[in-house]
Amino acid sequence: MSETVKIALIGLGTVGTGVARVVLEESERLTRRCGKKIEIAKVVVRDLSRTRQIDLPPGLVTDNLQEVLDDDSITVAVQLIGGIHPAKQYMEQLIDAGKHIVSANKALLCQHGTELFARAREKGRTIAFEAAVAGGIPIIHVLSQAMSGNQITAIEAILNGTSNFILSEMFLGGRSYEDVLAEAQELGYAEADPTLDVDGTDAAQKLGLLVQLAFGTKVTLDQFPKQGIDTLPLEDLLYAYELGYSIRLIAVARLVKDELELHVQPTLVPLDKPLAQVHGPNNMIALEGDVVGKTWYQGLGAGQNPTASAVISDLVDTVAGRNELIFPFMDLWNEGKQLEVMPAEEIRRRYYLRFNVLDQPHVFAEMADVLGRNQISLASIIQHETPEAPEANGDSKQVVPVVIMTHMTTEGRIRAANEELSKLNSIREDRVILPVLD
Ligand code: HSE
After folding, report:
1. Are residues 357 and 241 in the same domain?
2. Which of 342, 372, 392 lies at the terminal end of a domain, its last residue?
3. Residue that finishes a domain, picked among 312, 342, 372
4. Alpha-carbon distance 52 to 75, whole Å?
5. Which residue among 116, 332, 384, 420 is the one 20 to 30 A from 193 at the CA level?
6. Residue 154: enclosing H or E segment and its boundaries?
7. Residue 334 has pLDDT above 70, yes or no
8. CB atoms < 10 A from the CB of 162, how many?
9. 75 lies in the same domain as 174
10. Distance 70 CA to ligand 1 centre (A)
11. How far away, in angstroms, is 244 Cα from ligand 1 center?
């Protein structure tokens, strides 16, 4: 007869329901994996009257966290509520009450991880967070265990399933941004506030956690460029394809000399790169280590079951005592050398530029002059022929798109040129500037 370990679920939303279902239905499987029987002793919800997608044994559900805090027989709390408040207070109370924590809350750990980890460590408890980054892909385990022999040199990743779903569905189905976003919400990929998905915040928070594990450096979101997909028109996805690229929301952390290059931006990815071929709500992480070389990890980054899969692996590891091996890793890194974040202006890349310009003489010369004076060299230019305006006599005021690919340059030069371009009457305000991933 296996020993029983009692756990509590804090939150019974999409992911919590998936976790409860696997714990109840696959009890034998989990016992084989950790040597102990996992029993859900309490489920804490905010609203007792809400209809649930799962039948739980009677007496489990409560709206009072205190019942978990007071029950010393419960040793693990699986906390699946998003946001900072009250999630932070709950986690502190649970740690203080001696519970090990499993959490999927990337926002909380990104913002307050240092103090929460220190608090748990002081109490001899662990916080596991595989589900906080890239849903079903076990990237936290990879970074904290499997890459121990390596200095990670680069992370290039698609970390937001909602954004990837939107970009690929817009392109493949010729659908509008709003239409696909609504579907992503219905399918449970998006955060409660989908702004965090589409403005790049969710991916940036996940990158922050990966950077801490991979480089031992704590970064805040205001230290690097972050741009979402929420203002990207279908037109640019089509131009990028014409040029041989896909546009994906790409998070990058790269070791350049002794500095960290960091950014999260819609990025042109050459079609033959694995990251360009990731469709739907999938995530992919390309990880480069100085010993192993380049490795790729792909899977569903959002949704009930992929996220539940990650939570349960943490739960099993916690019950088996394996998290105690992983957990000190964060603290050890924190004691090491913190890398400086490269100033955004120094980031070197190629760029895609789309300008809506007045179709009249000298416009190309004006654009080329600004770019040239800022040391930006042009690699290709597209202006599709448009029908002549009826009054065409060389002074037409039609607005037409011009797409330019640059050679390698710096973010600083691009910003300076953009500032000058904004003063030209012949170029409209809706300029699109996107980096290229080489
Ligand atoms: N909303 C996230 C995404 C999933 O779309 O990737 C949870 O991290």
Report:
1. no
2. 342
3. 342
4. 25
5. 116
6. strand 152-158
7. no
8. 27
9. no
10. 33
11. 28
Cβ 189 under 6 angstroms from ligand 1: yes
Residue 172 belongs to some domain of the structure: yes
Confidence check: pLDDT of 267 > 80? yes
160 lines ligand 1 (CB under 6 A): yes
Question: Could you tell me where the DSSP H helices lie in 54-160?
Answer: 66-69, 87-96, 106-122, 139-141
Please state whether the peptide bond connecting residue 435 to the residue before it is cis, i.e. omega within 30 degrees of 0: no
Residue 261 beta carbon below 6 angstroms from any ligand 1 atom: no
- What beta strand segments (E) does 225-281 contain? 245-256, 259-270
**What is the count of structural domains for the chain?**
3
* 283 and 212 inside one domain: yes
Domain that holds residue 154: 139-300+330-342
Contact call for residues 78 and 9 (beta carbons, < 8 A):
yes
The answer to whether the beta carbons of residues 18 and 305 sit under 8 Å apart is: yes
Do 13 and 78 sit in the same domain of this protein? yes
- Kindly report, residue by residue over 128-178, the tens digit of the pLDDT: 999 999 999 999 999 988 998 999 999 999 999 999 999 999 999 999 999
User: Could you tell me if 223 and 287 lie in one domain?
Assistant: yes
| Catalytic residue annotation | 206
For residues 90 and 174, state if they share a domain: no
Chain-centre distance for alpha carbon 228: 11
Supply the pLDDT for residue 437: 98
Length of the chain, please? 438
Who's near 94: CB < 8 A, 6+ residues apart?
10, 65, 68, 69, 77, 79, 101
Q: Are 160 and 294 part of one and the same domain?
A: yes
- 162 Cα to the center of ligand 1, angstroms: 6
CATH number at residue 157: 3.30.360.10
Residues 6+ apart with CB under 8 A from 272: none
> Quick check: helix, strand or coil at residue 349?
strand
Strand-pairing partners, residue 285, are: 157, 297
Q: Would you state the pLDDT for residue 189? A: 87
Residue to probe by mutation, ligand 1, list 15, 160, 250, 285, most atoms within 8 Å of CB: 160
pTM score = 0.94
DSSP β-bridge partners for residue 155: 253, 287
* pLDDT tens digits, 216-239: 888 999 999 999 999 999 999 999
CATH of residue 356: 3.30.70.260
> Which of 140, 167, 197 to mutate for ligand 1's pocket (most ligand atoms within 8 Å of CB)?
197
